[in-house]
């Protein structure tokens, strides 16, 4: 005699977005897309660099590559290198202006630590 037990399917949990843009990042990126980088797209990836091992890499490209994930947020398109997607799931991209510097910053829930200068991170 055999018995089969029907187990209900587990509900699928919604994954966090691959990447989100803050309002400040969207404003700055929109300005870049409309002026000097018109017709191009920003590609975000990670590369081996620094004391902690990884750093964010941003480059301009004319079109998505087959290996790019396309992220649409706040009416803008950003590309994420598929090789970097596991490192970046849930990351929030911001744009900060400080007294002596300004630039894009990343709040990444996958980071386990950063080096002292803040240039690199590890997961």
CATH class: Mainly Beta
Largest beta-sheet details: 4 strands, mixed
Kindly state the mean pLDDT as a whole number? 84
Helix content: 10-25%
Separation of termini?
50 Å
Quickly give the structural class. Answer: mainly beta
Rough outline: globular
Strand content: 35-45%
Uncertain residue segments: none
Helix and strand run: EHEEEEHEEEE
CATH architecture: Sandwich
Give the helix tally. Answer: 2
Strand line-up of the largest beta sheet? 3-2-5-4
Give me the CATH superfamily.
HesB-like domain
CATH topology: Hypothetical Protein Aq_1857, Chain: A
Number of strands: 9
Q: Domain count, please report it.
A: 1
C-alpha Rg (nearest Å): 18 Å
Please tell me about this protein's structure.
This protein is mainly β. It has a single domain (19-115), classed as HesB-like domain (Hypothetical Protein Aq_1857, Chain: A). Helix content is 13%, strand content 41%. The chain is built from 2 helices and 9 strands. It has a 4-stranded mixed β-sheet. The longest helix is centred in the first third of the chain and has 12 residues, at 23-34. The radius of gyration is 18 Å and the shape is globular. The N and C termini lie far apart (50 Å). The model has no long low-confidence stretch (mean pLDDT 84).
Write the layout of secondary structure elements.
Blueprint: E1 19-21, H1 23-34, E2 41-49, E3 53-61, E4 68-73, E5 76-81, H2 85-88, E6 91-97, E7 102-107, E8 113-114, E9 121-122
Parallel strand pairs: 1-6, 2-5
Antiparallel strand pairs: 2-3, 4-5, 6-7, 8-9
């Amino acid at each position: 005699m055999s018995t089969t037990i029907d187990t209900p399917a587990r509900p699928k949990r919604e994954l966090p977005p691959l990447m989100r843009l803050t309002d400040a990042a969207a404003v700055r990126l929109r300005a870049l897309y409309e002026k000097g980088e018109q017709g191009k797209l920003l590609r975000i990836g990670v590369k081996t660099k620094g004391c902690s091992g990884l750093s964010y890499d941003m480059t301009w490209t004319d079109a998505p590559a087959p290996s790019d994930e396309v992220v649409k947020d706040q009416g803008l398109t950003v590309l994420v290198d598929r090789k970097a997607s596991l490192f970046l799931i849930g990351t929030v991209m911001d744009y900060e202006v400080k007294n002596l510097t300004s630039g894009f910053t990343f709040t990444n829930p996958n980071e386990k630590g950063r080096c002292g200068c803040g240039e690199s991170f590890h997961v």
